[in-house]
Specification:
By secondary structure, the protein is an alpha/beta fold. It has one domain. Helices cover 38% and strands 13% of the residues. The strands form three sheets. It has a four-stranded mixed beta sheet with strand order 6-5-4-9, sandwiched between helices. A three-stranded mixed beta sheet has the order 1-3-8. A two-stranded parallel ribbon has the order 2-7. Helix 4 runs parallel beside helix 5.
């Protein structure tokens, strides 16, 4: 979320964060669609896989001093509130830096992931891309299903790493979140209301034509994308 220089005397507060590349909710697609950024890749993946994205905040301040607790709580609060109010979600894709320090938390991004894990539960996948200069901690690893770091310096592969994370979510974890569970339960209930398939003369049940007489339980994730140096995305099936 932020590359913190603990030797700097310049505190990173909300005023400093808002000064550069700060976007909220509906401002985010306009700022990042069609770009070679991590969020640009996230929007491309959403279009390809049919995800619905939820993106409360994107913040990308310059490297600077320790982040104030107030700034951290404000932005973490936006992310966690979205997890509460926009869910249930099928997964979270976070594009963080991995070297943020606040007054209260030396491993601030690990703290964020721990809070998000508590909100989403153990079954919802959380996949994170990180800067090459991330300080990877046990707390990060314990609360994420995958951590994917940039490979280049200068950092020119954030688009590729975000696509790698999105493809991992779709191929490895698709359908494992609570929103997909809800859709499957709704489909099962609808099938139960329709009753058994009619019997043919030979005693076997007729199979309905594809798409005929049965509800659609297609997952269309909604992704949550906040950024404090890089983006986040969460996916959930439609209600």
């Amino acid at each position: 979320m932020h590359e913190t220089n603990t030797f700097s005397r310049v505190k990173t507060d909300m005023a400093l964060i808002r000064r550069r590349d700060f976007h909220l909710e509906n401002e985010i697609p306009q700022a990042f669609r069609g770009t070679r950024s991590a969020l640009g890749a996230t929007f491309e993946a959403a279009d390809k896989y049919g995800w619905t994205l939820v993106h409360p905040v994107s913040a990308n301040p310059n490297p600077s001093g320790i982040v104030t607790d107030d700034a951290f709580e404000q932005i973490a609060g936006m992310i966690l509130e979205a997890a509460d109010t926009k869910g249930p979600v099928d997964g979270a894709l976070l594009h963080l830096h991995g070297a943020m320090v606040t007054k209260a938390h030396e491993d601030a991004e690990g703290e964020l992931l721990a809070r998000l894990r508590q909100k989403l539960g153990s079954r919802t996948p959380i996949i994170v891309t990180l800067d090459l200069h991330a300080n990877v901690t046990r707390n990060m690893a314990d609360n994420a299903n995958a951590l994917i770091a940039f490979r280049t310096y200068p950092h020119i592969d954030m688009h590729e790493r975000a696509w790698q994370a999105a493809e991992l979510h779709e191929t490895r974890y698709a359908g494992r979140g609570p929103a997909s569970d809800r859709n499957r339960a709704a489909a099962d209930a609808a099938r139960a209301r329709l009753g058994p398939h009619p019997e043919r003369a030979d005693g076997r049940a007729d199979r309905p034509r594809r798409g005929a007489g049965k509800p659609t339980a297609r997952r269309s994730p909604s992704a949550f994308a906040p950024v404090l140096h890089s983006p986040i995305s969460m996916m959930s099936a439609p209600r």
